[in-house]
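assembly run, all chains below
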Amino acid sequence: MKASGSSGWKGPVKFRMPTAENLVPIRLDIQFEGQRYKDAFTWNPSDPDNEIVLFARRTVKDLKLPPAFFTQISQSIQSQLADFRAYEGQDMYTGEKIIPIKLDLRVNQTLIKDQFLWDLNNFESDPEEFARTLCKDLGVEDPEVGPAVAFAIREQLYEIAVQSVSSARESRLSKKSRRGSDYGSASKASGLSMDLVKLFSFKSSVVRKRKDLDIYEPMVDLLTNEEVDALEAREERHAR
Amino acid sequence: MATNAPIPGGSGEIPPITPSRPIIPETPSEISASSNSLQPPPSSSDTDRIYIPSYSRWFSWNEINECEVRSLPELFDSRSSSKNPRVYLYLRNSIIKQYRDEHPNKISFTDVRRTLVGDVVSIRRVFDFLDSWGLINYSSSASAKPLKWDDKEAVASEPPSTVKESAKRICNGCKSVCSVACFASEKYELTLCARCYVRGNYRVGINSSEFKRVELSEESKTGWSEKETLLLLEAVMHYGDDWKKVASHVTGRTEKDCVSQFVKLPFGEQFAKDSDSEDALETFNQIKGSADPESEGRVKDGSSSPDYKRMKLTPLADASNPIMAQAAFLSALAGTKVAEAAARAAVTALSDIDHEAGKNAGGDPNGQEINGNNSERAVAEAKSLLEKEEKEVEGAIREIVEVEMMKIRDRIVHFEKLDLEMERSRKQLEEMKNLLFTDQLNIFFHTRRSRKAEDRAEC
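ok done. output:
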């Protein structure tokens, strides 16, 4: 991949996850006969499709789910993979794209809230590495938190990459203006990316504003069992 | 580290690096689910001892053994950036650590998958691999130890307890059980079933001639170990022809088994590689030299079978034609001699049929004439074919020539156009020159006139 750092926009790049490893985040949320199965993991899209069946069967067996889940799981995985593959042939524009990534998740008894800036242009970025370091630095003991954090980051990156594909498509459809100016407007229109030029110009300083300090600080909470139950009950009520 | 109690049966130990529980490999003699010859551990309810089977003795925390590379090739061939040895090491070590934390409870794939960062397919493969090699979820109780995967899942690899005793050969290409015959390459340690061999279903760098054909029908039932082979050879050397005595010397084998095994022994090549069995080679040479006529006959049989085996089969090149592929597959399965015989028989049968047809058509009982007819017909056919070919070639050449002519014509047309353009621009240039000239003249006259006017004005 081309090294990031040059200003302006480079030519369109074939769609892929903007991370070092091209893994697709897959989220499952299946409800059937009163049983709910929620899961999230990463999948390598270059694996053969028979792996989906094997994985689904294994999961149903390990978690002792009713066998009806098997078809639902494999279908869900397959449709998400198909979506990803549909995007794969298309172009996405990569410009200056520093985006804030928000973490707000609860894994077993650990609650993590965090926000940080991520460079979408850096195709060598590694959410797993970041998650590992985060957990180590914050002293998180539950081994399931790391993968969940990595997954959340990956999911958000995936969504934004998808958005950039659709914006690239729109800019191409409108043939009135020339490409360069059109792209610039599109990226600003997305609203998420920060304007680096403004940020690092001589007028403003690199130090974060005071009001942003709280948002950008990670927060880890260990909940007791009762709090976990209460939270879960609240979530289910929201879901319905 | 706690001291390790001595275990009957002579199993080894692995010095563990991180865990506080001692790891003790056992020595099961057969890994098939049917036979339970596992040696029971000294105390069954041991929560602070972790057992692993002795065929997994190669395991080491910081290294990757080649059987791991073999079983999980997709993680090591750098096709995908997320599949590389570092990732494999991380997955494998985390899974094993997690299992050892949970010991004696077993861990399931989903437990592991939730705590590991990586794509789930690779995790599943590594998990299955470790499971099959007994590095995780290994219970040393004598109750049935079935291999822990679904029946329909492809079997990745079977851990052989000793190399010669593997009950079944699994093809590395299609992961199916090899039945009649298989092809083994010792250089790359691959085993392929006949179909994969013919289809070329192996890695790119391997030549088809690297494979040797290995008959399986007897091997799967008996699986002769080295010791037994050695005993057999000794017995034959001592007792020569008395197969009863030979069978009694080789414990546990019937006469027929001994005879068939002796005939099949791949002398020379295999024993040359094995440094232990050089004496076996010598004994065989002695046997070869023995004057006993009957054993000589059998020995000749034995020496012919290695040639038979050593013949390197090259699959018929054009595997795209399905019929040819099928024929190649069948001939590979059956072996060269059988295939030769079959082909010869087929040819003679065909010529017989021709013979018959010739007889019926000509109505002439004279055999020679019919033969002459046959050969004449063949010659005529060949000639007509030749003519057809020539005509085709001529036609092709004609077409090529025509195309070339058209090309040249086009080029000429192009050049003519260019020429015209040149002329036109030259004419334009001329005109412009003329114009310039007239302009110059005008200016000259004007200046003359104005100077004359000036002179007149001065006077």
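Chain B has a mean pLDDT of 70.

Chain B touches chain A at residues 79-83, 98, 108-111, 113-122, 124, 150, 153 (CB under 8 Å).

not gonna interpret more than that til we talk
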